[in-house]
Amino acid sequence: MTVLGPVAASELGYVDAHEHLFLRTPALPGDEFLDEAKSTAEAAAVRASGIGTVVDLTPIGLGRRPAELAKLAAGAGLHVVAATGYHRSAHYPAAHWAREVSDDLLLDIVLTDLTSGIDGRDWAGPRPVPTTVRAGIVKLGASYQRITAEEDRWFRAGAQAALQAGVAVAVHCETGTAAHEILDRLAELGVAAHRVLLCHTDRNADLELHRELVSRGAYLVYDTVGRIKYGPDSRILDLIEGMAAAGLADHLCLGTDVGRRSMLRAYGGGPGMDVLGRAFLPRLERRLGRDLVDLIMRDAPTALLALARGD
Ligand SMILES: [Zn+2]
């Protein structure tokens, strides 16, 4: 399910599985990016780097602009899958409505985004502005080493909505932690590991752990590509090589998650959202071959993004 409607899995091409095309969060003051022309330029560079689909994992209340996302997708010639759901607690102000409203309303808001259209003001006001731009994945978040009580409420809403709509669930794992606990909790809520994408797992570059998580059925996204402060890109290549040696690379995805204005070329920053296709994939192909690139960039994310009915 893309922002321009349903697309056959075979049409997605290479998938960048973790980006943000618009973002604003109190956790990153001064680093927001909401300019449509600049985001479209960034998306066009991603398209030019050989990528056909971007998964925008921006959750509720963090600056989603559904109508502009649809225009951006058309303008850049890129498939865009939008998200709904709730991030980890740190991304919402103390008095945010998501902390206050009932479980039923938490669920209804996510389901509306998935089944009819994302609110045009990103649920920022009391009167929704309907759009027909539907979300195609649920995004949730957990804190460092644990799922807090309010995050668990958001997990319940997100899991139930994902099951009803047949979409996958992506989860922010803070510094790559609490991954087993997240899979356990989602399983209790009815979401099987093979419908879960664990984000930021490369921040915790523990090959044994990654093999355990994929052996449970989960998908991992290595999403610090090009963000060198977290470590050299070579460590991601090493992780992929280790997973491929264990026959588990078919559950790996890639992304850059350059979720700051200062990391986007359109704002004069770097490395730019296209760093994955422009710089990393050629290295990956040289090291491990084209078939492996196809597996990680096309087959794994396509399987995850396919809508499941009665799953
Ligand atoms: Zn992100």
Relevant terms:
single chain; 311 residues; alpha/beta; eight-stranded parallel β-sheet; 9 helices; 13% strand; globular; binds zinc ion
Characterization of the model:
α1 runs parallel beside α2 (66-76). Helices cover 37% and strands 13% of the residues. The radius of gyration is 18 Å and the shape is globular. α1 (36-48) links the parallel β1 and β2. The chain starts with 14 loop residues before the first strand and ends in a 6-residue tail after the last helix. It has helices at 36-48, 66-76, 103-115, 149-165, 179-188, 207-215, 233-245, 275-288, 290-305; strands at residues 15-19, 53-56, 79-84, 135-142, 168-173, 196-199, 219-222, 252-254. It has a single domain (9-305), classed as Metal-dependent hydrolases (TIM Barrel). Strands 1-2-3-4-5-6-7-8 form an eight-stranded parallel beta sheet. It has nine helices and eight strands. With 311 residues, the protein is α/β, with parallel strands linked by helices. Bound molecules: zinc ion. Residues 18, 20, 57, 257, 259 line the site of zinc ion.
Topology readout:
Elements: E1 15-19, H1 36-48, E2 53-56, H2 66-76, E3 79-84, H3 103-115, E4 135-142, H4 149-165, E5 168-173, H5 179-188, E6 196-199, H6 207-215, E7 219-222, H7 233-245, E8 252-254, H8 275-288, H9 290-305
Parallel strand pairs: 1-2, 2-3, 3-4, 4-5, 5-6, 6-7, 7-8
Helix pairs in contact: 1-2, 3-4, 8-9
The structure holds zinc ion.
